């Protein structure tokens, strides 16, 4: 209904507007500037971030903090991640939720260097999350028992070199 009203308004306003622009072409400039401003405003609207991209960015940020060590304890990760641009607007509770939502496994007890028995994240788990998922084998949709989904004939069909003859 709203579209019909808009179309009707354009149909009623277009002829007088066109006639006015023919008489005075300077009317076209403010109209063009207005249209340009509205389009620019719509184009500059922020785009919602892709959740998968945010997940990968978090994993990469944690992996960067881990460095070349086999893992990191949460007691070291939280302060460093909260001080980074990635975690600037998070607290520890939200950070833990973001880590679990990203699929990062938090081990209850792990060893990093000389320290053992604290919760942490393993580097191998992070690297596995960044690897692309292997393509799953797609089952062959073609029938295996007969032609076009029909059951094979009981006689077993023709053998190689044989030909069925009609009587």
Characterization of the model:
The longest helix is centred in the N-terminal third of the chain and has 22 residues, at 2-23. The chain has two domains: 2-43, no CATH class; 51-130. The protein has a three-stranded antiparallel beta sheet with strand order 1-3-2. Helix 3 (51-66) packs antiparallel against helix 6. A hairpin with a 2-residue loop joins strand 2 (107-112) and strand 3 (115-122). The protein has six helices and three strands; from the N terminus they run αααβααββα. With 167 residues, the protein is mainly alpha-helical. 49% of the residues lie in helices and 10% in strands.
Helix/strand class: mainly alpha
Helix content: 40-55%
Characterize the biggest β-sheet. Answer: 3 strands, antiparallel
Mean pLDDT metric: 79
- The fraction of residues assigned to DSSP E strands is 5-15%
The side-by-side strand order for the widest beta sheet comes to 1-3-2
Count the helices. How many? Answer: 6
**Separation of termini?**
72 Å
Annotation, overall tally of beta strands: 3
- Any idea how many domains? 2
Rg estimate, integer Å: 33 Å
Low-confidence stretches: none
What's the overall geometry? elongated
Q: From N to C, what is the helix and strand string?
A: HHHEHHEEH
